[in-house]
Amino acid sequence: DVKTLLLNFRDLFRFIYGTLEAWRLLGKIRPDSILLKGGFVCVPVGLAARFRRIPYLTHDSDAVPGLANRLTSKYATYNTTALPAELYPYDQTKTIQVGIPIRKEFIVTTENIRNSAKLSLGIDTEARVLLSVGGGLGAQRLNIALVNASRLLLTNNTELIIIHLTGKKLFDETEHLYSSVLSNEMLKRVTLIDFTTDIYKYSEAADIVLTRAGATNIAEFATQGKLCIVVPNPMLTGGQQLHNAKVLQDAAAAIILYEENLGELGAVIDSAIHLTDAEKNNLGTKLNALAIPDSADKLAILLLEIAEIS
Predict the structure, then answer these.
(1) Using a CB cutoff of 8 Å and minimum separation of 24, what contacts does 109-114 make?
(2) Which pLDDT value is given to residue 310?
């Protein structure tokens, strides 16, 4: 349509201007190497880096590469990936799996660590903790589905505690929804958090994690070896989360629930609560097997390598 054509025409000039600005800034900063993480801003930087003959790496967190990395990958010294290299449509001779850099606080969660985390949050070690994470901005559909399931879950599982990260913009709405479906006594077993930079404190305490299929969150919970129920967001560009979930499903490393079946969330959570310890440990172990340790170090070493040979 005409509007889209005009916007694309406008963006062509923005891209040219962005590339000239990147060329100027790279001449001023004079970096020895560059890491391109895949956002739209990476394309003009990558092109300018090629003109300046500055070596760069690309890095893909998701199972399917974004458009920016597809455009810049040809002239990258290496294309680094979160998942096995063969999943990506790059030149395999220069594609290296490095995993996803995460904070050092994420470690394998033993029973002792989980119990200590529960106590630090004022939760009895005998309680079963469900942590719901919708990503940095929250996930409205996931929030609503959990609220709708919460009354029956809390009734059928008297030891259950829900910790719900709602997202800042969705906190008031989610709080109101819980208040409308739960009794005051049940509300005492639900903790709502709008946003935290220390999610590991809550995921350590969790027996089950309900999460979207964002690559970084999955990497964090994989490192901890968590039992995860993963609900991929089907609306994101390129179906990134659907591809991430497919990798987990193929590895039998998590319980996957697709959004069209979100009405079954309560039953899926209830089933997970009643898995045997062996079944829970098996899922956590398989997810942990997908984690790549020391990802940040691997990327740093590669950046130093290409800087030295440039």
Answers:
(1) 109/203, 109/204, 109/224, 109/225, 109/226, 113/204, 114/204, 114/205, 114/206, 114/207
(2) 65
